[in-house]
């Protein structure tokens, strides 16, 4: 963001946000407020994310709330710890019209969890990364239940929309269906009854007011506020215009069909919302905390549990917080976090993460993180806020919609009045009708609703496959990836060293060689020493062992029963003047000598992950031009691993700063349109993750550093999930562009048919509402991606 000041992120729940055009108006309006560095409205989760500088936070936030209520006065704004801001709360905000509109809109704050909160942001790279820390995450989790309709008694949602709503609850649906039935009956009566003249017109007018009076009223209120070009205005002008030229049945019928279409559209959007939110149905509702030293438990909210507390998780329950198993054995289902269907076995000492589901036994867990810092909170936070970083396609549609409707209205005016003045025989009634058809077709709803929905669905589908994408901009960028750079240790390999070969010499047996090595490495905390002790797997003798000396960069000297034992690399042997064998096997070599005589050597190797080779092949099939591996290991080790996996280029012996340099060299060698991904473990690779176009943290489950540093977090240890992420990105883009092509194509055809007098208002309404419903349903197909 580049202000040099600390950035603050505030999230507001916009209760009653019911149309994508409204979301667009709010986003454009709030962005213009001085002191707001960035803002984003998520139509799917009904949230407004505002970025301000810390010294202007409260003042700017109040101004943002005023702007929202002026644009959409029926919306109630919730912030954490405060009642919803709606009708009565807006009394002092300087817009008398808002108060008149909503004297009936009583808030239901008592039963609702409020959903605001703030967190401090820190830019990652290119001003695009906003990492919220901990305490903000709990309200996202509440949002999850409220949006998805899984309230569990926590939230009572009374939508007090003053105008027309795209989101219909059961009560609203019945009322709307009753209005549609009454309007249809009156139209039928007007058409087939013997009445004519004023009596017949009165029936049409009453039918029209029943069917679309709320839309006309909303259009009038919006015009008073200076909001002219929206769907309410377009439908009102088109249908009132139809009455003006004597097309009474068509004017009423179009409004009836429009309302019916809006009902279907609202149902489709709600279904999509619930589908997306159900992917993230991982928030635990409660924790069973142990009281005192006995077995008595008390059910509390996960937010009330502190670090060090002990909780009990019974069979079938979700693990509410991160911790360590202190008692009990069980199998847990990790699929909600990792997408993995294979259960994981837990025993005392095992780490456990919130979001796991306990399958059979009872577990006693000591909590190591508060709920706000837990894995499940961070995942909910990342997925629900991913839409704040929008793809270029979304930005294009936002700008397109802003100018498209006014242009169409101007064209409609020209169609209505120019031809009758310049063409002989042309009548105003005919060309005004064509202009009205043109107006009805012009609503950009299909694009404005379905495209953000498509990207959000793609992010949801990725999360179900164990892949967290921090923004739709990164999901879109994955489509253009041509170079993938991997770190080796912990990414393509398991990062766990094992003794793979024992080569005794000079009359020593394998057991004697291993024992000498284990004694020498007994006090070292180096990963290689740990692997030797693990391979020995017996008690290590301490009697007669003295004079321990660890020589950095060489190895270890120690006296065993008065005889000097050396364990280390070739340099240690050369320093002691001992002749040693140079093995041909690739791996880390530990030479062992006793009393000046060579005893043999051990080969220590890092195992390659099971799916690493398949991951490289899958990436190449997806059109990746170049795969590269960077490692700090010796050249021989790196090249052997690279060759085994089929990696195109290997760079070995690199320190973290050298990895950045290599990445910049690779960046210079590709075209500007091509994207480069770096895949690392997220702990030692933060500079490289930040430098790449898309930074992917591998094995990031439970790693705070990984979740903070990367743009995409793969929650399992499987490199093959990167190919899955790219496939989901490609599928998402395909569906988004299908919707763009379909919506614009149908509209262009019907606009031309309308101008030439072929299309009537019936076709016009289909091209608006029908296309929107079909586009929304098409966008929902993204969600069906599972184990891709």
Main attributes of the structure:
788 residues; alpha+beta; Alpha-Beta Plaits; Calcium-transporting ATPase, cytoplasmic transduction domain A; seven-stranded mixed β-sheet; six-stranded antiparallel β-sheet; 27 strands; elongated
Averaged pLDDT:
78
* Number of alpha- plus pi-helical segments: 25
Please give the domain count: 4
> How much helical structure, as a percent, in the residues?
40-55%
User: How would you characterize the largest beta sheet?
Assistant: 7 strands, mixed
Distance between the termini: 36 Å
Give the strand line-up of the largest sheet.
15-27-26-25-16-23-24
Unreliably modeled segments: 86-168
The fraction of residues assigned to DSSP E strands is 15-25%
Gyration radius, rounded: 33 Å
Broad structural category: alpha+beta
Total beta strands: 27
User: What is the overall silhouette?
Assistant: elongated
């Amino acid at each position: 963001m580049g202000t040099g000041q600390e950035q603050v992120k505030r999230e507001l729940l916009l209760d009653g946000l019911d149309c994508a055009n409204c979301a667009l108006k709010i986003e454009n309006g709030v962005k213009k407020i001085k002191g707001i560095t960035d803002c984003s409205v998520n139509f799917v989760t009904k949230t407004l994310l505002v970025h301000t500088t810390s010294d202007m936070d409260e003042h700017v936030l109040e101004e943002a709330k005023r702007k929202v209520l002026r644009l959409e006065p029926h919306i109630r704004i919730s912030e954490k710890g405060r009642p919803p801001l709606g009708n009565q709360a807006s009394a002092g905000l300087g817009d008398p019209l808002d108060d008149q509109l909503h004297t009936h809109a009583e808030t239901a704050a008592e039963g609702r969890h409020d959903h605001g909160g703030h967190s401090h942001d820190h830019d990652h790279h290119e001003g695009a990364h906003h990492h919220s820390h901990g305490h903000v995450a709990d309200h996202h989790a509440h949002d999850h239940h409220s949006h998805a309709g899984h309230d569990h008694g926590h939230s009572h949602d009374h939508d007090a929309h003053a105008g027309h709503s795209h989101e219909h609850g059961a009560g609203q649906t019945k009322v709307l269906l009753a209005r549609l039935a009454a309007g249809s009956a009156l139209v039928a009566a007007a058409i087939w009854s013997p009445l004519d003249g004023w009596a017949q017109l009165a029936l049409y007018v009453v039918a029209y007011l029943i069917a679309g009076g709320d839309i006309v009223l909303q259009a009038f209120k919006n015009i008073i506020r200076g909001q002219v070009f929206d769907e309410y205005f377009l439908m009102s002008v088109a249908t009132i215009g139809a009455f003006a030229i004597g097309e009474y049945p068509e004017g009423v019928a179009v409004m009836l069909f429009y309302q019916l279409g809006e009902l279907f559209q609202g149902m489709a959007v709600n279904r999509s919302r619930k589908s997306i939110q159900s992917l993230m149905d991982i928030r635990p509702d409660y924790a069973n905390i142990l009281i005192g030293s006995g077995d008595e438990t008390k059910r509390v909210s996960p937010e009330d549990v502190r670090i060090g507390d002990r909780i009990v998780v019974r069979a079938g329950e979700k693990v509410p917080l991160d911790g360590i198993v202190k008692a009990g054995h069980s199998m847990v289902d990790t699929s909600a976090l990792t997408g993995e269907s294979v259960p994981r076995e837990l025993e005392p000492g095992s780490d456990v993460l919130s979001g796991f589901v306990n399958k059979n036994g009872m577990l006693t867990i000591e909590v190591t993180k508060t709920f706000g810092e837990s894995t499940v909170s961070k995942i909910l936070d990342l997925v629900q806020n991913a839409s704040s970083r929008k793809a270029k396609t979304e930005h294009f549609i936002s700008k397109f919609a802003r100018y498209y409707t006014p242009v169409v209205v101007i064209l409609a005016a020209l169609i209505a009045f120019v031809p009758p003045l310049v063409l002989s025989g042309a009548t105003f009634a005919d060309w005004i009708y064509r202009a009205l058809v043109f107006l009805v077709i012009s609503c950009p709803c299909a694009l404005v609703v379905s495209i953000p929905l498509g990207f959000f669905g793609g992010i949801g589908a990725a999360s179900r496959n164990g892949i967290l994408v921090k923004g739709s901009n990164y999901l879109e960028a994955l489509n253009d990836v041509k170079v993938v750079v991997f770190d080796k240790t912990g990414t393509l390999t398991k990062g766990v060293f094992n003794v793979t070969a024992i080569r005794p010499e000079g009359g020593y047996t394998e057991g004697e060689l291993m024992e000498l090595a284990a004694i020498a490495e007994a006090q070292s905390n180096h990963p290689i020493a740990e692997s030797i002790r693990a391979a020995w797997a017996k008690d290590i003798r301490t009697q007669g062992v003295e004079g321990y000396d660890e020589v950095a960069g060489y190895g270890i000297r120690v006296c065993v029963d008065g005889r000097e034992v050396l364990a280390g690399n070739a340099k240690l042997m050369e320093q002691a003047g001992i002749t040693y064998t140079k093995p041909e096997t690739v791996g880390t070599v530990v030479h062992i000598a006793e009393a000046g005589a060579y005893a043999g050597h051990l080969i220590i190797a890092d195992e390659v992950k099971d799916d690493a080779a398949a991951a490289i092949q899958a990436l190449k099939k997806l059109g990746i031009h170049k795969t590269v591996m960077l490692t700090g290991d010796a050249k021989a080790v790196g090249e052997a691993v690279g060759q085994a996996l089929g990696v195109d280029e290997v760079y070995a012996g690199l320190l973290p700063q050298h990895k950045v340099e290599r990445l910049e060299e690779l960046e210079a060698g590709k075209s500007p349109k091509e994207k480069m991904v770096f895949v690392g473990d997220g702990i030692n690779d933060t500079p490289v993750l930040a430098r790449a176009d898309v930074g992917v943290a591998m094995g990031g489950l439970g790693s705070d550093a990984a979740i903070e540093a990367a743009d995409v977090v793969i929650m399992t240890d499987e490199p093959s999930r990167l190919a899955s992420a790219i496939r989901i990105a490609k599928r998402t883009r395909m569906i988004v562009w299908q919707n763009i092509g379909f919506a614009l194509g149908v509209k262009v055809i019907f606009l031309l048919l309308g101008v030439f007098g072929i299309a009537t208002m019936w076709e016009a309404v289909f091209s608006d509402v029908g296309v929107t419903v079909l586009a929304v349903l098409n966008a929902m197909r993204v969600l069906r991606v599972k184990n891709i």
